[in-house]
Amino acid sequence: MFEEWLAGFPAWLVLGVGLGAGASVLVAAVFLAANRWFPDPPAETVGESDGSLRRRAEIRAFLRAIDEPFAERHVVDGQEVAFYLPERRVAITFDAQAYFRLTNAESDLHVVLCEHEMPGHQLGRRLPFDVPDVRRRRGSGADPVRAAFETLGLPRGAGEDAVESAYRERVKEAHPDRGGSRDDFTRVREAYTTALNHVEE
């Protein structure tokens, strides 16, 4: 039956399909042999991105600046957290799942979830205790809120809509993909966060 069915096709088609199948098997055999003789090196485990490492360094510097003892990559209630403040029972994590597991656990632990984009010096706003203003202690006599509004090109009393609109315009100019520098981009983002926290209601 198969031979009758096969006889219904032109000889050149049967020959072409047969040669194509044979060539495919040959190429597959070459790849399998090459993979056996020259195996790929084992994949290295991917570490943290530069951004994550930078945020950890910023938070580490901030905690040292406020003289707060901490442990890094500490396991608390079965969850690894980025930073743990043992004297205050505060866990700082970048992992949302760990945050929710620790928050739902019955304990006196205070958990802080940090976004990777959050500048390290802004951690103080999320901590459950009073934190000295580290930026002012460094000798910066200028008002950071006024400087934030000036960076966005706005007067200090601007509203939320004006801040968001000015941020969208300034971030387009400062973005590294559009010819701006990384420092300018970071400064505009930090100015936006500061200004948004101090808008007139």
Automatic annotation (TrEMBL):
Sorted alphabetically, which keywords does the UniProt record give? Membrane, Transmembrane, Transmembrane helix
Q: Which SMART domains match?
A: DnaJ (SM00271)
InterPro entries for the chain: DnaJ_domain (IPR001623), J_dom_sf (IPR036869)
Record flagged with keyword Membrane: yes
Q: Where are the transmembrane segments?
A: 12-34
| A Pfam entry, by short name | DnaJ
In this chain the J domain maps to: 147-201
Please identify the protein, giving its name as recorded. Answer: J domain-containing protein
